[in-house]
Specification:
The protein is an alpha+beta fold. It is about 30% helix and about 25% strand. The longest helix has 23 residues. Bound molecules: 1,6-di-O-phosphono-alpha-D-fructofuranose. 1,6-di-O-phosphono-alpha-D-fructofuranose (AFP) binds next to loops.
Amino acid sequence: MKPVSLTQFLIEEQRRHHVINADLRLLIEVVARACKRIAIAVGRGALGDVLGEAGTGNVQGEAQKKLDVISNEILLEANAWGGHLAACASEEMADPYPVPDAYPRGNYLLLFDPLDGSGNIDVNISVGTIFSVLRCPEGVAHPAEKDFLQPGTAQVAAGYCVYGPSTLLILTTGHGVNVFTLDREPGSFLLTMRDVRIPEDTSEFAINMSNQRHWEAPMQRYIADLLAGKQGPRGRDFNMRWVASMVADVHRILTRGGIFIYPVDAKTREKGGKLRLMYEANPMAFIVEQAGGAATTGHTRILDVLPQKLHQRVPVFLGSKNEVELATRYHRVADQAGLD
Ligand code: AFP
C-alpha cells in the first residue's frame, strides 16, 4: 500500500472530522518542517559544531545548550511569515513572540519546548520538540501573555517530535493520536501508526528516584508499594525506566504503556513542580488522553488546570489510565484526610 504522507493525512482528517482548516494544516506542516531541520542539526552533532553550552541562560534560569538556541530560532523563523499564526511562546523565551508586523497575522497561538531533554544531547540520547496549538482569542490583534493562559482543554492540536534512532512526529488534533516516521531521503513524514492506544494497565514506572528523599508522603507510599513487588500490596513486580528526556519517556509509554511521574517535592515546591504546564504538561496530557491514557497533577486533571502564568510549572503523572488513577488516589486520600 502507498504510504500516507503527513499532508495527505491532514487533508483526509479535515474531510472526516472538519477540525483541520487550511491555516491549521499549514501550521502543523510548518512545525513538521522545522522539526526536520532540527533533526538534521541534532543528527550532525559534533560535525555540525552544535554540541555543548550556548553560554546563555533562559527565562527559567537554566543554562542553554547551543541546540536549545538553534532549535528555538528554527521554530520562530519557520513560523513567522506563513500568515497562520498570531504569536508564539517558547520555554526558552521570557515573553510571547508576536508575528513581525511585516507579515499577516493568523488565528493561532503556538507554544513550544524547542528541545526537550537537552541535557541529553551531548551523550547522544534521544531529545525532542514538544508543541501545543491554541486559538488566539477573538478580536486580539497583538496577543499578550494573558491570551495564552487557556486551559489544556482549549488546545486544538498538540504533538512532539522525537529525535532518536528514527525521527518520529506524534500528533493529535483531538481525534486520536497518530505517529509519522521521517523518511530521511525524500524528507517526508509518513504515517506509520494509526490511532495509538496506551494499555490501561502497566508494570513499568518512570521517575527520577534520586529525588526520593524530597518527595511528599503519598508519593513515598505509592513508590514503596511498587518496589515491594510480588510480596507487597500490588502483588506483582514493577520495572523502572528513566531517560530524563520527557519525549522519550512519554513515547515509550505511548508505545507499550507505563506511568511517568515528575512530582512536586521539597526542592521544587516553591516553583510548583519541575515541568512546564504550557510547553510540556498540557501537550503531553492532550496526547496521552487522546490515546486512552490519563494525566493528572496528582490531584486534578492536567487539562483542567487554569494557567496563571506562561512559564507555570506543575507536577505531572501520566500514562496508563488505571495506574495514573491509582497513583492519584494516593494523593487524594491524603488530601481528604488532611495528611501531607
Ligand atoms: P532539559 O531539557 O533541561 O534536559 O530537561 C528535561 C526535562 O524537563 C524533561 O524532559 C525530563 O523528564 C526532566 O527534565 C528530567 O529531569 P531530571 O534531570 O530531574 O531527571
